[in-house]
Specification:
Largest sheet: 3 strands, antiparallel
Structural class: alpha+beta
Number of helices: 5
Number of strands: 3
């Protein structure tokens, strides 16, 4: 029996690099004790409860992300929140889960990959309000949000 140390993953949304290329498939390796201890020596990390610790650890164990052979904290910080949460879950399952939990998670990722769009549509910058005639006279169709809110499942 051999120990599997590398796992392929597919991000739900994907990392968009500076050129606009989408990177969704990647490889994560199992973490070593050093992967979890070394970031605590980083002067930018204030301790084991520092939220940035997750970013630094993930940058150490994600070996590839799409065409990117070198994944740094810059790329991990640039992930969409859903993708960061996915990698945190993936990390936990492959490092601390049972073989059955790992297989279940990997099988579920196939569903995520099939449901996600192949590439994001081009996004145009919003037109400044000063350039839109009567921009201040048209009421917003959606109420402003003052904080992060959980959306009901039927509106997602």
């Amino acid at each position: 029996m051999t120990l599997r140390t590398r796992y392929e993953f597919t991000l739900p949304r994907g990392y968009v690099d500076r050129e606009g290329a989408l990177h969704r498939q990647g490889v994560m390796r199992l973490a070593t004790a050093r992967d979890e201890l070394e970031p605590l020596r980083d002067p930018t990390i204030s301790g084991p409860d520092d939220p940035r610790l997750t970013v630094v650890v993930l940058a150490r164990v994600v070996e590839r992300l799409g065409a990117l052979e070198l994944v740094t904290t810059h790329e991990i910080e640039g992930l969409f929140a859903a993708d960061l949460a996915y990698l945190q879950d993936f990390y936990g399952v492959i490092n601390f889960g049972t073989p059955a939990e790992v297989e279940e998670f990997l099988a579920g990722q196939d569903d995520v990959a099939a449901a996600a769009p192949a590439a994001p549509a081009a996004v145009e910058e919003p037109t400044p309000a000063a350039d839109v005639p009567d921009a201040g006279l048209v009421p917003s169709a959606r109420p402003a949000r003052s904080a992060i809110e959980e959306l009901p499942a039927e509106t997602r």
